[in-house]
Amino acid sequence: MASVGTLSLFYPVFLPASVAALVYAGHRASYVNWRIWLYNFLTGPGRTSRILLLFFLVLNWKSLPLAWTVRVFHAFLYHVLRRPKVLPPRALFHFSISSSRTSLLETDYNMHKSNSTYFADLDVSRSHLVTHLLGPAMPAVGDNARNKLVLDKDGNLVKGGFGIGLGAVFCSFRREIAPFERYEMWSRILSWDRKWLYIVTHFVAKGKVRPTGWDDRRMGPTRMRAVDGGDWTKHVFATAITKYVFKLGRFTVHPAIVIEANGLLPARPGGWRSGDDGTGTPEELGELGGSAEDSEWDWRHVEQERRKGLEYANHFTALDGTNALFDGGEDGAIGSFPLG
Predict the structure, then answer these.
(1) Rounded to 5°, angle at Cα 186 from 305 and 255
(2) Largest pairwise CA distance in the chain
(3) How far is CA 258 from CA 83, 129, 274, in A?
(4) 137 and 261 in contact (C-beta within 8 Å)?
(5) Is residue 182 a contact partner of residue 101, using CB atoms and an 8 Å limit?
(6) Helix (H, G, I), strand (E, B) or coil at 213
(7) Strand partners, 126
(8) SS3 (DSSP) at 115
(9) Are 202 and 239 in contact (CB under 8 A)?
(10) Contact call for residues 274 and 193 (beta carbons, < 8 A)
(11) Which of 18, 27, 37, 117 could disulfide-link to 106, CB 3.0 to 4.6 Å?
């Protein structure tokens, strides 16, 4: 399991350090005569090389050193500052949309976006989604000594710093993304079980699809609901599924605890940590018609969406068993090659 950050350090360490760095940078910049500096940059000796280099850097900024860190931390800071105080319950399965463009340094010898670069974009898109939906709950769960949200099986209070672990990523490629082409990443919660939170992300052609509404009314234009549902898959470049695990120290936190701490789970008989055992049979869930806006967003609606997504997530999780296929080259190997 690859750790993607201990969020218990973000608020007390990284956030103040980032603010301090920005304040210091702004302070130093105030001593620069930018008019003279810009004149010298555009007219001084070697100006052609500088301008071409600047143009190259601007076009490829997302592939530069530390750019990944800036993009991910921007997602954290953006939602700390702009997130609405209260989200509607139906937001739990809504998409988070972020935009990007294929840079020249992301383009492979086939002249399209390299498959390996999708995973850096996924980090950014998931950071937007998880921070927006669950951001306020993370410090609450992290301060477990005060809030007492996480107990072990014996009822003891769990100690340790809060973190998120990346368990696995699967990506299915449908169509190529051309150099400098703009695209969007549509990420939402797919499902969860006792251990994993599953997230699905679609890479979509920029400007081809708009949602029928926004949870935040400041976001911009929407579209009318399609009568026939619409064939939106024709605009999809690729689809990825990710599984996250929440941790307090080395203790695995049930995803429902984090989601519930953020007020996104309605009351459910037996609680949300009962999983699939004994609560919410298909008969109890029933058939829910209409949209989330037209029907009551109760625990049955949430559970139905969770189980629908879990049908796909279970197939994804089954691939974990392929680790057992590694036999250490029991029957030999082709060879060992440089620059791997």
Answers:
(1) 45
(2) 78
(3) 17, 14, 15
(4) yes
(5) yes
(6) coil
(7) none
(8) helix
(9) yes
(10) no
(11) 117
pLDDT confidence tier of residue 82, bands split at 50, 70 and 90? confident
| Predicted TM-score (pTM) of this structure | 0.84
Beta bridge partners of 183: 100, 205
- List the Cα angle 26/11/8 in 5-degree steps: 145
Q: Which of 303, 305, 242 is nearest to 273 (CA)?
A: 303
Question: Nearest 10 degrees: CA dihedral of 123, 124, 129, 134?
Answer: 70
Q: Which two tokens stand for residue 218?
A: 């400041």
DSSP designation for 284 = H
Structural element, H or E, at residue 243 = strand 236-248
The length of the chain in residues reads 340
How confident is the model at residue 219, as a pLDDT?
A: 66
**CA-wise closest residue to 280 among 263, 298, 295, 292:** 298
157 secondary structure, DSSP code: B
Q: For residue range 296-335, what is the model confidence (pLDDT) as tens digits?
A: 688 888 999 999 999 999 999 999 999 999 999 999 999 9
Neighbour count for residue 189 (Cβ, 10 Å): 26
Instruction: Give, in order, the Cα–Cα distances in Å from 51 to each of 35, 39, 59, 81, 98.
Output: 16, 12, 12, 35, 29
Q: Tokens 């680790």 label which residue? A: 323
CA dihedral sign, ordered 59, 62, 66, 70: positive
User: Of 243 and 218, which is predicted with more confidence?
Assistant: 243
**Can you read off the two tokens belonging to residue 246?**
């929440």
Q: What single letter denotes the amino acid at residue 159?
A: K
Q: Are residues 104 and 60 in contact, defined by beta-carbon separation less than 8 angstroms?
A: yes
CB 210 within 8 A of CB 221: yes
Q: Are 245 and 195 in contact (CB under 8 A)?
A: yes
Give the pair of three-digit tokens for residue 220.
């911009």
Are residues 203 and 227 in contact, defined by beta-carbon separation less than 8 angstroms?
no
Rounded Cα–Cα distance for residues 73 and 67 (Å): 10
